Every structure is written in structure tokens, then in C-alpha cells.
């Protein structure tokens, strides 16, 4: 356990479904809470409630039940909705979230995006919790807005599929850029390849993703969307900003492959690494067992890499 960690709220706001947001949230919740002994709150803001289901909670109850709307817009304390699934973190399940977004939409436009920050994060982060992690849906709604305002630190998982870079582009230009322009500070702590399985010394989809992440100026420009002089739409960085430095600061070392290493791989001089985070059947099995991965399979080989992401959350960035 790290002494006196700096409290931090983290969101996983990828505007594309199925890249591993919910898997990351429950796994990192387990590592930070169960394995490292921090006080952690995990909040499911996805109306589909996959995370809640995966931890054994129902997402629909009668309208009388106390839910997030009563905390954000009413007088109810967060204690009324916090559960303890028993994996080292407290949990707010996705209960009646359609009605929560409806209620927020009726509130005044500006104030309604600040509710999560004011009523939950400002009240409890640093006091009761060291870390608050928000799982959000793969499309934008009122609760996504609330999450990015409340938790200005993002982790972005990407899968080796053709839509991956489009997903990041949407997220960068429609969410991160505008948030930075309007609110100033918003950090992408890391972008992380997930569900990897193929070799990278051949032209596989895994190689395609890693090569784009590790070499392209346009990829770097998405990570800095909304900052001065950055044109994320056309994919350019301001003069004097090094692509390599931006990538070093946003890709964990286990997924960072530099130009000389690509050359060595292609010349057959280097054993092609099998870059994490790899596809592991234990993720689906843990979900079926209604447990986070660290509880279900503490010896899982990929937990080492999730641990590196937890380090990045603790430090507040890759190079601090
Ligand atoms: N490293 C992995 N190995 C094996 N399966 C994985 C891995 N990461 C994610 N998955 C699986 O991929 C699917 C999508 O993952 P997950 O639900 O975490 O993504 P998501 O971004 O939260 O999706 P949504 O936007 O639908 O909520 C799930 O079935 C999950 O079990
Ligand atoms: Mg999800």
C-alpha cells in the first residue's frame, strides 16, 4: 500500500462500445482496493449495466427505490446507494439510470453536468475514498458528461479492430477536446491496447493497432485534442511538440514500441514481443462468476499489466 496516495477520480470515456471499459474498471477497482488496500469507490454509469451484472447486481427496481438521482438531485446521502460487493471496493450499481438521465436533463443545462462532481466527488474524494472510478456507456449522454467533469483523468482501452482509431477520434474530438477547451484540465493518463492475441512481426490487426499507436503523429494529436495549437481533426501537433514524447507520456511501457524496435522486429533480430494486455478467457469466466478478475484469478498473467495501469493512476500519469 502506498502511503498517502493523492486522491484521484478516473473515468473510462471511450465513445465506442466493447473495448474493455467495464473490464478495466472492475479489474483496477480490485487491484487498487483489494490488492493495494486503498479506499475505492466504483460507479456504474452505463444504463446497460454490464458492470453491475458482472458483480451480481440487478439494474432495474421499482421507481420507489433510492437511486443516483436522489443523491445527485435530492437530499439522499451516497450511503443510501453504496453497496459492498466484497472485493476491496464499494460500488454504486447502475440502478434506473434512464430515469436518472431524464431527471438530469430537466435540470438547468450547465448545473446538470456538475452534479456528480458536486454531490459525489467533492463530498467524498480524499475524505472517504482515495480513488473513485466511473464506468460510462459507449455513447454520450448526461451521465458521461457528468463523469468527465467529475473525473478529469481518463484511461482509454483500445482493441485491435478496424474501428479502434475511429473510436478514439470520436472520443478525442467530441468529448476530450471540448472538455479541455471549456474546463481546462483533463488528462488522458494512458491509452492501452486490450484483447491482443496475434503476432506483431506479421501484418496482423494487432500489429496495425500497435504500429498506429506507436508511430503516428495523428494518433499523438488525438491524445492532445483541445490543447493549444493541436489540430486533432487534421492530425497535426504544434511545431516543437515531439510525437515520440507525446506517445511516451500516454502509452504504458509494456505497449510502447519505438522505431528502432520495429526495425529490429522486421529484420528478424528481435524476438517479437507479445504485447499486453492479452486476450484471456479468465475475463469472461470472472464475469460469469460475478467477480472482478483479481478476485477470480489472482494469478492471472495479465494482472501484472493492469498493475502497471494502477501505478499510472496512483502517480497521476506515466512520467510524473
Ligand atoms: N483482455 C480481455 N480478454 C478477453 N476478453 C476480454 C478482454 N477485455 C474485454 N473482454 C471481453 O470483451 C467484451 C467487451 O468488454 P467490456 O464489456 O469490458 O467492454 P466495454 O467497453 O465496457 O463495452 P460496453 O461499451 O458495451 O460497455 C466483454 O465480453 C469482455 O468480457
Ligand atoms: Mg461497459
Automatic annotation (TrEMBL):
PANTHER family to which the protein is assigned, alphabetical: COBYRINIC ACID AC-DIAMIDE SYNTHASE, P-LOOP CONTAINING NUCLEOSIDE TRIPHOSPHATE HYDROLASE
Keywords of this entry: Plasmid
Classification lineage: Archaea, Methanobacteriati, Methanobacteriota, Stenosarchaea group, Halobacteria
Protein name: ParA domain protein
Domain AAA: 10-171
Gene3D superfamilies in the cross-refs: P-loop containing nucleotide triphosphate hydrolases
InterPro entries on file: AAA_dom (IPR025669), DNA_Partitioning_ATPase (IPR050678), P-loop_NTPase (IPR027417)
